What we know:
The protein is α+β, with helices and mostly antiparallel strands. It has 2 domains: 4-118, Arc Repressor Mutant, subunit A; 122-272, no CATH class. Helix content is 37%, strand content 28%. It has 8 helices and 10 strands. It has helices spanning 4-18, 28-35, 74-93, 100-118, 121-133, 142-150, 154-163, 217-224; strands spanning 38-43, 50-55, 59-65, 169-183, 189-198, 213-214, 231-240, 243-256, 259-265, 271-272. The chain is globular, with a radius of gyration of 20 Å. Zinc ion binds next to helix 3 and helix 4.
Amino acid sequence: xxxxxxxxxxxxxxxxxxxxxxxxxxxxxxxxxxxxxxxxxxxxxxxxxxxxxxxxxxxxxxxxxxxxxxxxxxxxxxxxxxxxxxxxxxxxxxxxxxxxxxxxxxxxxxxxxxxxxxxxxxxxxxxxxxxxxxxxxxxxxxxxxxxxxxxxxxxxxxxxxxxxxxxxxxxxxxxxxxxxxxxxxxxxxxxxxxxxxxxxxxxxxxxxxxxxxxxxxxxxxxxxxxxxxxxxxxxxxxxxxxxxxxxxxxxxxxxxxxxxxxxxxxxxxxxxxxxxxx
Length: 278
Ligand SMILES: [Zn+2]
């Protein structure tokens, strides 16, 4: 049986072979056609964008959608690329994950593959250099630019940037949420900030600090004072469970009324995380 590391290497190679010219945005439907995998759609009621792989006499990727738009949304594109990852593993190693642990490990590998396929590192390195040097874009806005050029979500873009060793950039996306277990004086749920995306990879496909709640009122008030698309820097000290920041030079930008991006450098001395991570 192949080790996970062998599968990972093989998937990395496959991402290169399937997008040798580092096309961005990649025509994922064309990749499927080239591989002889058919693309099908299934109408569903709930959350759209989920895809699954069917292997029979021939292979197909089925995308569940609750609408009939002809073009593929960012989520559809990523889900399809992820399923191509499962297909590559099946073709090259002759198996699909059988146990639950194996399943989650494969999910992480196929997510990594999908990101490499849709946001090729060679494209990304040049693209970031251009943004910084030619267009003078601040790094806190990089994920937004990468997302729109590669037609991927903000989360995938941010994680691709952090995965690029030369970039040394990490991102958090914070959003407000109503907290039912803490009430304001008039008994309505208090609004708190939550880390809805972290680009800082931990072990086995997890992302450090993701899901953490922020109960720092001073910080929240300061962030609420920013205008949409405004950028500001501030030393950040915060405990996000697996990720702790102490006096880390952070750059904040407000994306929308309820959403903020925080960017810092991965090699900042004030970052603490469980040993063996990063
Ligand atoms: Zn999967």
